[in-house]
Each structure stands twice: as structure tokens, then as C-alpha cells.
Amino acid sequence: MRHYFTRFITQPLTGIPKSITLTPRIETPLKSHYLIRKFSDTPQVSKPAQSHRVDEIVDELSVLTLLEISDLAEVLRQKLEIDEMPMMATSFDLKLEGGFDAGAKIKIIKEVRACTDLGLKEAKDLVEKAPTLLKKGVTKDEAEKIIGKMKEIGAKVIME
């Protein structure tokens, strides 16, 4: 069968009428070496061109002191009639305050271990040296849960 198939393909096309003309093939982008798109593994981000005016403002602002920047923010807030500046903090620090009674100390140590993954000795040392930083970089929801649990057992925790 293979021999017959090969022979069939290799035989000249004598039965095609002369009036049929073969059209040239149109190359597709995938077959043409110069049309193949080159992809990169790094993201290509188009950056909008900064205007000259924006560059000048940035240059002027970069030489201001922190006090001048604070005054500028206040003046802009008044001029644009903004009552409150939006809160930009997305993570908070929890601070364990001292002043809890000795009977609640064991419960507080257990809760500190649960929310910080500290060992017994580290949690005990942290509770004994209150006021101190309990947990850093916590979301608002998680911080409120921890504060609620600590209040229930007699500890005072503040969110900064």
C-alpha cells in the first residue's frame, strides 16, 4: 500500500487542463520568518510621557522640608474644600498595654501565643514587658478580632 501511495504522489499531473492557473501562495504570519512576533517574558508597560510642567512641579516639591509639605497639604485641603483626608493605612500595628491584673496574665499569655505564634517563654516575656508591640502589619479586620479577644480576657490592646 505504501508503495502505491508513493507512486501515486510522484506521478506527474497530466490530467490537469492547461486553463487552470495556480495562484501564488500567500504566506501566513506563522510561516513567514519576518512576521513572527517576538515575545518577551518581561512585562512591557507603556509609560505615558510626562509633561514639562509636571517635571517642574516635582523638582520644586522635592526640595521642600517635611514641615513645608505638611503646610502645603493643609493649604490644598482647604482650597479644594476637603473636610477629611482619606485614610491610606492598610496595615496596622497592635500594641499591648500594661495595667492588667495578675489573675488574667496566664490567659493573656495563651492568647498572645495564639495570635503571634510565639513560644511560651517569648510570649511570657512579651506580656511582662508591656507596654510593647504585640503584632506588626496586621489588616484592620484581623486587628479588630485580636483586640476583641484580648479585651474579653482583660488585656488592653491599641491599634496604631
From TrEMBL:
GO terms for cellular component: cytoplasm; ribonucleoprotein complex; ribosome. One of its GO terms (molecular function) is structural constituent of ribosome. CDD domains: Ribosomal_L7_L12. Keywords: Ribonucleoprotein, Ribosomal protein. Pfam families: Ribosomal_L12, Ribosomal_L12_N. InterPro entries: Ribosomal_bL12, Ribosomal_bL12_C, Ribosomal_bL12_C/ClpS-like, Ribosomal_bL12_oligo, Ribosomal_bL12_oligo_N_sf. The keyword Ribosomal protein applies. Residues 55-89 form the Large ribosomal subunit protein bL12 oligomerization domain. GO terms for biological process: translation. It comes from the Eukaryota. Residues 92-158 form the Large ribosomal subunit protein bL12 C-terminal domain. Belongs to the bacterial ribosomal protein bL12 family. HAMAP family: Ribosomal_bL12. This is Large ribosomal subunit protein bL12c.
